[in-house]
Design brief:
By secondary structure, the protein is of the alpha/beta class. The protein is 31% helix and 22% strand. The strands form 8 sheets. It has an 8-stranded mixed β-sheet with strand order 12-11-8-6-7-14-15-23, sandwiched between helices. The structure holds adenosine-5'-monophosphate-propyl ester.
């Protein structure tokens, strides 16, 4: 822990603005009461909230049961998540989704219309023989039909697993096979940056690589673009969708029945299928939408995340719809066709709450403040950020240029595994400082500990961020891999805490500052990527002997990937510039564009210990332009450092 030193100091701080405070869902008194109730009677705290915010078919008797690392929440309770997101909001003539396509077509869907769409699609899925507990892969961009598919699965108790539509066929195949999905739902194609991306071709390729569990592929005709149609397997969405409105009774689900699997990167090559439950997940999604986003009936909430990530699950779909809010979704690129696309959409639709990632903020900041200045962004009343630490410069730019200095900024820390926000400001109460996600939310008990699991009580001393008590939306495990679940999240401290894998420090005012990851995971543009996963992809190229991947600071992406590669003997004469290009494409094909290394360096070998372990720590120093620090006495081949220094 001695190595985790904090170098950031930030003295600017912002109090919530008075007019925001007056109308906020949570004021100082409510926050105080919530926190003290949790301290006194945690079960009562969660029980009251669950009763108030969820529509139960049958009420639960126990609140939290089990012991680490396996907890159960609201065990005897019965509910259906899709009913909570739809049935209770119909007949109010309320808008559910405003969808803007990259081509600027606008579609408005009310809760009543979405209810019909979801019921009809549930009927189609049911007719295909899907039953509770089956798995379905959704490989679609963020369009209303993707949301329809998610909610239809939830209605039937079918477990969905969304694969980000930018992932390659190999990644898709691995995820399909890991969860033995029966059906894949996709689009013929979609547009990104004006280019046509043929998603169905990627699915076809994935299936050709071997996905024996897949019985059918449902294709939604998203744009006018021909696609191959395989009569044995393929079905058109419009052909199987009921023409008349049919009501499908929601499946009665137990609180602990799984709602979805979402794959995320870990420090080994294999993605982890994070599993989430029904009731607990839903509860934290609802609460955080109300507490952190201050969501109200007349808000228009735009979370720019793709539904392929956890943010899209919790803050595009389940949280906002369960609270009966209106969401805006946009399935195009942030700067297409022009750099002011986001600001134009906010003005035209009067978005009130805007939630995006630091990487997007930095990109838009670089394009200049004259762009947002052309628009009236006065409808905005709250701004959020997520995915990686936001640097104070970008925070202040966001607050001044987008939030007209009046909008609170909520920097929300959480993970795929936590399901919902864990550490974030309460916008009407918390004094914010650029760069910190501030304090844990009511009901969330975090600590910063040293390698032995002892609390670090010293300010500004970095340590491992852990969560001490279970919470409703915590992951329930890793699909089919109990051992890995225990190893990754619990074993280091003997099941005492949930281990986040992040390092953090506490400042003098009790604010938490996230410092980065402690494992071999890099965070590129707000997306977690396992370095091992990228290394495995690189090494699978026939010319490559070995590879090590590390990250370095990048102005826009937050972190970028530097791959160190050694080639097999007979290929060392290969033109490195050409081959670097080829290797980048190779990684794109194996994993997806987001994993492409920004830099690739070729050398005769890699720095290794005498026992043959690659010393990534030294490579990290080199990639980051730092002096080599720490002990190098175990280094077997000292010369390689000189060679690497010379080529960088
Ligand atoms: O390292 C933290 C970083 O993103 C990781 C979680 O990534 P993922 O599961 O893909 O979920 C992203 C969206 C929740 C965390 O372990 N992270 C997320 N939010 C923040 C953050 N780092 C700093 N500040 C944040 N607000």
């Amino acid at each position: 822990m001695k190595n985790i030193e904090s170098k950031l100091t930030e003295s600017r701080s912002y109090k919530p603005n008075e007019s925001f405070k007056k109308k906020a869902n949570i004021n100082k008194t409510i926050l105080f009461e919530l926190n003290s109730q949790y301290k006194k009677t945690p079960d009562m705290f969660w029980s009251e909230l669950a009763k108030k915010h969820i529509d139960w078919i049958e009420e639960f008797k126990t609140v939290c049961s089990g012991s680490a690392p396996f907890f159960r929440w609201f065990e005897e309770g019965k509910l259906n998540v899709s009913s909570n997101c739809l049935d209770r909001h119909i007949n109010k003539n309320k808008k559910a989704i405003i969808h803007i396509s990259e081509d600027n077509n606008k579609t408005v869907i009310t809760y009543d219309e979405l209810y019909v769409l979801v019921n009809n699609f549930s009927h189609s899925l049911k007719k295909l023989g899907l039953v509770k507990g089956d798995r379905v892969i959704i490989y679609m961009p963020t369009i209303p039909e993707a949301i329809t598919a998610m909610l239809a699965c939830a209605r039937l108790g079918v477990i969905h697993s969304i694969v980000f539509a930018g992932f390659s066929s190999e990644s898709l195949k691995d995820r399909i096979n890991d969860c033995n999905a029966k059906i894949v739902i996709t689009v013929n194609a979609f547009k990104r940056n004006g280019k046509i991306i043929k998603a169905k071709n990627t699915v076809d390729h994935a299936l050709s690589l071997g996905c024996p569990s897949i019985e059918k592929c449902i294709i939604y005709k998203n744009i006018n673009e021909n696609t191959k149609f395989n009569k044995d397997k393929d079905l058109w969405w419009h052909d199987i969708l009921a023409k008349e409105s049919i009501v499908v009774e929601p499946e009665i689900m137990s609180s602990e029945d799984l709602l979805f699997i979402l794959y995320t990167s870990g420090s080994t090559g294999k993605p982890k299928g994070i599993v989430h439950s029904s009731a607990g997940y839903l509860l934290n999604c609802i609460l955080t939408n109300k507490w952190v986003f201050d969501l109200k009936d007349d808000d228009l909430f735009w979370c720019t995340a793709d539904i392929g990530w956890i943010t899209g699950h919790s803050y595009v779909v389940y949280g906002p719809l369960a609270t009966g809010s209106t969401i805006l979704i946009y399935d195009g690129a942030p700067t297409y066709p022009k750099a002011d696309r986001f600001w134009e959409i906010i003005e035209a639709n009067k978005v009130t709450i805007f939630y995006t990632a630091p990487t997007a903020i930095r990109t838009l900041m670089k394009l200049g403040e004259h762009l947002p200045r052309k628009y009236n962004l006065n409808s905005l009343r709250l701004l959020g950020t997520v995915g990686e630490p936001i640097n104070p410069k970008a925070w202040v730019w966001y607050q001044s240029n987008i939030g007209s200095k009046k909008c609170p900024i909520v920097d929300t820390w959480w993970q795929t595994e936590t399901g919902a926000h864990m550490i974030a400001p309460i916008p009407g109460v918390t004094q914010t400082i650029p760069g910190t996600c501030t304090h844990p939310l009511p009901g969330i008990d975090v600590d910063i500990v040293d390698d032995n699991g002892n609390s670090i009580n010293k300010c500004n001393q970095g340590g491992n961020l852990v969560i001490r008590k279970p919470w409703p939306s915590m992951l329930r495990g890793i699909w089919n891999d109990e051992k890995r679940y225990k190893q990754t999240y619990w074993e280091k401290y003997n099941n005492k805490y949930y281990i986040t894998g992040d390092t953090a420090r506490l400042d003098n005012n009790g604010n938490i500052w996230i410092m980065g990851r402690s494992d071999d995971v890099v965070n590129v543009s707000g997306h977690r990527l396992g370095t091992m996963e990228i290394e495995s992809a690189i090494v699978s190229h026939e010319y490559v002997a070995e590879s090590a991947v590390v990250s370095y600071q990048h102005e826009i992406k937050g972190e970028a990937i530097h791959a160190f590669v050694t080639l097999k003997n007979n290929f060392t004469e290969y033109n490195n510039t050409e081959f670097a290009k080829e290797l980048r494409e190779w990684v794109k094909e194996k994993i997806g564009s987001i994993a492409k290394p920004e830099r690739i360096s070729f050398s005769d070998s890699l720095p290794k210990t005498r026992s043959g372990k690659i010393m990534r720590r030294l490579l990290r120093n080199l990639a980051r332009g730092e002096d080599i620090s720490g002990d190098t006495s175990t280094l077997e081949n000292e010369n390689i450092l000189t060679q690497l220094k010379n080529i960088l």
